[in-house]
Structures
1.
Amino acid sequence: MKDDDELTALRAELDLIDDRLQAALADRFRCCVRIADFKSRSGVPMMQPHRIGVVQERAAVFAAANDIDTDFIRRLYELVIGETCRVEDLVIQAARVD
């Protein structure tokens, strides 16, 4: 296989991995919308600091077991959790208006 062909194949593989990553993120946010709906109906506060700690710890364990920089995974999950909180806030606020 020529170098260009190998690089093209590797990039195609990476594109498929990115597709799965993006689909997993979309699934995660859809689940968070359902969680926010439950919290709204049940009077559960949106912010659950203990749960955030559990999620971050699970990610750190995964990172360590898979030779991924734990600081990277921490920063990634800070972004994901931050967006999750934003989305949950919107869902809960919308439920209050209805």
Note: The helical segments are 3-42, 49-65, 70-97.
2.
Amino acid sequence: MNQITKLKKNDFSPEIKLILYCARTYVDSETTQQIQKNLGQGLDWSYLIETAIAHGVLPLLYHNLKLIDFEAIPNNIQQQLKNYAHNIALKNTLFLRELLKLLFLFKKYDIRAISFKGPVLAISAYQNLGLRHFCDLDILVCKQDFMKAFDLLTDTGYHPAYEWNFLNRDFELALRRSKSEYSFTNGIVSIDLHQDLTVERFLSSSFTLDFLWERRQLISISGHTLYSFGTEDLLMYLCIHGSKECWRSLKWICDVAECIQQHPTINWENLLQESRNLGCERMLLLGLLLAHEFLDVKLPLAVSKRIAAHPESRYLANEFSKRLFWRDNLLSTQFTSEKFFLHLRMIEKTKNKLGCLWDLHRPILQFFLKLVPNIKDKEFIPLPHYLYFLYYLIRPIRLLLR
């Protein structure tokens, strides 16, 4: 673990060091001294703010700089930080109000739903709605209620972020039902409606709404109570999600760190055993190790021993550590062979590896869907229904002309 610590402490610029020292809700006296030290090093404020925004931690940066030594910052930068953090807090409040409305609506129509990430994570892990930057609402429903929730959102004024408008309506509906998640927007608020927690199939099939519902816990937000994941389930999910995203953003490491800090009663032995049963121990250890190395989270002895026994987790942590602040980090949201093989290395159980291999069909499916005729092809050349098969020949021609 010392290799990553050395990389973090010695190789990062003063701007990155300052971001790391501020990317937490609790700052001790030693960290305070490090923040003050880095503030006196002639910082490139444009680069610092750009990086903090890109990694979703500007609210934490502003929060701690304001508490520790705001006068050491140029006036124009003070105002820039204040305005940005204020806008995030306002937007988060708007999203929370919409979430409460939607959860009430789902309950009214007997749809079991659990919100995760977004406002729920901000309160559960950060204890402050304004300290976690998020862009949408994530709501998990059971598979049986997925299309019911889909229709309810559209009836409420939400629009699917994308529709294929295929000529074969039955095919479109079947494809819609098969998707793990679907995005909606009403022009202001974006929603990801999930029937599975991740699009990728390397997550244990046991990690379902029924599993999470039995272990859910109530949290209080602005005088309202709503359901969230149980603490151990939340920590496992945060590590799974960060691993799925190849830990491209510091905010996902902050989520893990804050979840640990805000819930000191975690039963680590049970958590480790449960992660082994669910096939996500390697991803759990990876997230915990990154939180330890970058944000100085103290890990219990049982966890340290498991990390020491998992060279693959240490290798992956080192790999993602090197890339975290690269400007050209290519582990984007798009499918790449490199990302696929890194996902494969995170997986422990054979059946989950096979599920990961199944994900290879997704880029092929995307290509195939581009060839399926839709309503624009009919507008291009109107044909009677019994000649619809000709649209498979017309569509490539129309796309080439476009």
Note: The longest helix spans residues 75-108.
3.
Amino acid sequence: MGQQQLLLIILGVIIVGIAIAVGLQLFQSGSVGANQDAMINDIMNIAAHAQQYMIRPGSMGGGGGSFTDYTLPGRLQSTGNGTYEVTSATNEGVTIVGTSVIHDGTVTLNFTRIVVDGDGVPTGDTDVYSWSSTGVFDVGS
């Protein structure tokens, strides 16, 4: 009887150990996904700010129809999710790169403006956003 009880205890310890390992793995993958989602949300807020800058007349401190000279305000440069920078700001669009402060990964957004004719019909490419991810975020992208 003693050997059977010892075997059951060992088996129970192994099963609990496997369950803990699986739980930690699930928590880690959830944490990575949550951080990526939060960074995408932050970048979308920055893209909205860039859009506001682009449509604001130059006389009011805006871009007057261009993203050229757009810079991030200090409050948008860093959050609890990541640090962000504008790597390119041209007449056509802006590129925003976010680097995670929690995990080893980056998220990049290329945000372009849509040019429309007098009837409101797009005259060029209508793909406004293009995303890319590197590092640990490659798993979920």
Note: The longest helix spans residues 2-55.
4.
Amino acid sequence: MTDVIKLTAAETAARITNGDLTAEAVTEAHLARIDAVDEKVHAFLHVDREGALAQARAVDAQRAAGEPLGPLAGVPLALKDIFTTKGIPTTCGSKILEGWIPPYDATVTRKLKEAGVVILGKTNMDEFAMGSSTENSAYGPTGNPWDLTRIPGGSGGGSAAALASYQAPLAIGTDTGGSIRQPAAVTATVGVKPTYGGVSRYGMIAFSSSLDQGGPCARTVLDAALLHEVMAGHDPMDSTSIDAPVPAVVEAARSGNVKGMRIGVIKEFAGEGYQAGVVQRFTEAVELLRELGAQVVELSCPSFSYALPAYYLIAPSECSSNLARFDAMRYGLRAGDDGTRSAEEVTALTREAGFGPEVKRRIILGTYALSSGYYDAYYGSAQKVRTLITRDFQRAFEQVDVIVSPTTPTTAFPIGERTDDPMAMYLADLCTIPANLAGNAAMSLPCGLAPEDGLPVGLQIVAPALKDDRLYRVGAAVEAAFVTKWGHPLLEEAPQL
């Protein structure tokens, strides 16, 4: 069944629908792959073997009964461990939720099940999605399948690594400051941050409520579009959900024509801190877009220079508020409750034992920024910068259809290299953060290997809010041109595990 795990999600679904494969056989093949390689990769925190096989058998029964199947029915998927999943553990990569089994499904989880997508299990992540490397997981880091000594990106490194190691053809991540796109870039996979509000956040455990967004992860642009269509849409259970039709992302992914499109290149996304090989591959991708008939326009968005500091005031402030619910009184870990301590003491001991260093750092920073006397100087000022960034995007999109940039300034760095330097770690999200602050749609897809280290480089595409289809139109065109140029998908060059 080796060939089965190399199929795209679209190919797998088609072969299940026409009877060439059963969903159960496909699921068994991926479970066998997990057994074979995940001890080295550590992409999964929990594998739901029995549940996955039961879902697969249900799809096969539907087909046998002649019932219509959805476009991804029977296709296995790896789900980031931040979405509540009824009956199986959801930990957010944190000790404070170790062993917690939700009594309900997140909206995204429910939609996947209704579509017949087979959920293999929950993937590793930086604790509460706070990190750029998946080293902040309480359950240990995930390795990058291209080089297991290097990070797979973060916070959704487990989902990206599961794709790159052929443990699943589809995955879901969340993107607060780049946590879908950055892992996609360093693993040569495709990751999409939909327009903020385009995918329901109900049941997605909150880090920073005005920034968090779930999105599809895949190995091809079309697969990402098919998953996007399944998981997106208005949800009355989420007050930030947009009541608007889902953009025609699948149609756009199948067209892949950029002739006549205006592509913006932002001058602020260059300079010091960018690896030479990353800049080289990005420059080649821009030239490729010209060859495909697009018009390239150079732009300046001066407020983007302030995106990183603004983000690291807004996100920790919202995290400080959201994580206050983990108080040892209702669910999750409870430490020090021996009958002699007050509720406040138990809460303090539980948070000390349950939260990791990065989560504590951000809670402290956010609490300080929101405190009396500092709110206007820090959080308030950061929100004003956010408005300036949004206006820069608005002006840019008056001149161009999409913006392109490197996804990350560097390729995957070695595990442990930046753990003692938070600022160096935060710089990994330099290019991705502006789109989160403005709520725009954004995608990362592979654009080659850096000549210095032979590791993947990602191309980022950013589109205006509710114009997610433009990402897939441009992404599909670039992907097809690169595959023709290389003679095969880039991921085929990854070392075999």
Note: Residues 18 and 281 are 40 Å apart (CA to CA).
